[in-house]
Amino acid sequence: RLKEHPRAWSPILEQPSWTDDLTVCQLSGIGYGTNRVYQVDGTSSEGHTLEDGWLRFREDECYLYGVFNGYDGSRVSKFVTQRLTAELLLGQLTLSHGDADVRKVLLQAFDVVERSFFESIDDSLAVKANLMSQLPEGVPHSQLPQQYQKLLEKLNKVEQEIAGGTTAIVALILNSKLYIANL
């Protein structure tokens, strides 16, 4: 079940977030539906765990909307939903910004969020590189001798931890102009 907070709405996170203090955009009528699988008798069930995220916030006369299509888990889409909001709404955008400034802020925000995510999995990436360096080169994992099985199990576990990603599209309305950024 989605939890609606008095001032902000985050359908992904059931727990309080720093975004709870931001004003929700009342001008958009964004709906929400999970992946449903319908049976012949009309009953339905969730097809898979929701991996996506989205946001809609207003700060003064700045309106921000985002959709994040996660894959292989929701870790990245949740991360981007929280961090991108912070990068764009905590003083980076002002009504005095022109087109070039807004473009620069959007590009920087995407870059900072991407770098922040990689920093958050940096240790796991180092572990993966170390494990990979211990495997013989050019031999498919399925053909490795039994002595490498424990190493492969560790490698698979680390790869599952860092797997996933998200697409991102953001719409920003500032000074009655619409800006779109996507990745």
Automatic annotation (TrEMBL):
Name of the protein in its database record: PPM-type phosphatase domain-containing protein
Gene3D superfamilies linked to this entry: PPM-type phosphatase domain (3.60.40.10)
Domain PPM-type phosphatase: residue ranges: 37-183
Organism this protein belongs to: Scyliorhinus torazame (Cloudy catshark)
Coiled-coil stretches: none
